[in-house]
Amino acid sequence: MTNLEAHYDHVIIGGGMAADSAARAIRTASPEATIAILSADPHSPVYRPALSKDLWTGEDADPASQELHTAEETGASLFTSTLVTELWPNSHRVGTARGQSIHYGKALLATGSSARHFPGVEDDRVVCLRTVGDYRHLRGLAQDGARMVVVGGGYIGSEVAAALTRTGAQVTLAHAGRHLLEHLFPASITGHLEQTFAEHSVTLVPGFRLMGIDTEDELVLHSGQAESLHADVAVLGLGAVLNTNLAEHGGLDLDSGAVVVDPYLRTSARDVYAAGDIALFDDPLLGLRHVEHVDHAQASGTAAGKNMAGAEEAYDYTPLFFSDLFDDGYEAVGRLDASLEMREVWNQDRTAAVVHYLEDGKVEGVLLWNTWDSVDRAREVIAASQNDQLAPEELDGQITPG
């Protein structure tokens, strides 16, 4: 590893997908610029979705196969295990936990999110899945016959539970709702998913709100309903916390817990940009929002990198997100919220669907269930609906399921 210099043209704080994309965009636009990537993670940037997807379902379980090779391919100087603790926008400097001070021309905050842990519990058998280190640790614990309890029926919890069935472990998925993923999907899909998980020997425990964890010879997880689950390993999918402490202490404007950016992804501080999970941006279709998915991380990182290198290109993108659960998969755009009005369109054999999510008669989101190559059209449907050019009764024929 090269030594950390006192000055760089561009300092990128964070070691995820947004940081990687920004470094590539800067190098393309400004080949002679000096770039430092300061990452608290001890591992090089990887394609993070693989940690809960491909590394469990493919032939290669080594996370090195998902490494992005950011430093080699961009010429940036990558410094892992380097925690940035201070941001001084007025003097264009950042400080590290080791007491180093680095001057920057432009800085990017791409600090992402951290897994939400259960307070007061420190045990190697209680795991979250967010980093390469987490993946390797969980992979080692997922032995044939091990009792694995996944807590949380959201995006990451459902993916992890599905992934663990590949290991021979006994998998239980405990979640707070009445039905799996009911906050996202209509009953037609949640019912199908519950049947699919049961067919793959996943025990579903609805109505489970984690209230405590005993860490004796075996783990005992307690719910608010006096119900207990016994486990060898607990995997917590309790959501994520935005890593905005650096921005907050640096005096940057925050709103709704995220870092406010302008159309060019600039923060309230001169020459400081933000991308990825932490950025509160103006979505061209849906207004102010922050998005915690890889498509946004990559797209906003690229846009921020271009603008740091001198472009003035607005970030006018509506991100997608996606997941695979056994033999089913989906892509989606916008808000998937089951409290909204949901209009479903199914193919003839009911293996694929398009679900429109409406509020006050306008489409806020589109789910493409086992329906592919339709994301751009979904964005067009949202735009037309938001602009009063598409009535709810006209939605059925807009996107063909399948």
TrEMBL record:
User: Record keywords: Ribonucleoprotein included?
Assistant: no
One Gene Ontology cellular component: cytoplasm
**Highest taxon listed in the record's lineage:** Bacteria
Name the keywords, alphabetized: Apoptosis, FAD, Flavoprotein, NAD, Oxidoreductase, Transit peptide
Instruction: Name the chemical reaction catalysed here.
Output: A + NADH + H(+) = AH2 + NAD(+)
Q: Which SUPFAM superfamilies match?
A: FAD/NAD(P)-binding domain (SSF51905), FAD/NAD-linked reductases, dimerisation (C-terminal) domain (SSF55424)
Q: Where is the Mitochondrial apoptosis-inducing factor C-terminal domain?
A: 304-349
GO MF terms on file? FAD binding; NAD(P)H oxidase H2O2-forming activity; protein dimerization activity
Residue ranges constituting the FAD/NAD(P)-binding domain according to the UniProt record: 8-301
The record's Gene Ontology biological-process terms are: mitochondrial respiratory chain complex assembly; programmed cell death
Q: Which PANTHER family match?
A: APOPTOSIS-INDUCING FACTOR 1, APOPTOSIS-INDUCING FACTOR 1, MITOCHONDRIAL
Protein name in the entry: N-acylamino acid racemase
Source species, please? Brachybacterium avium
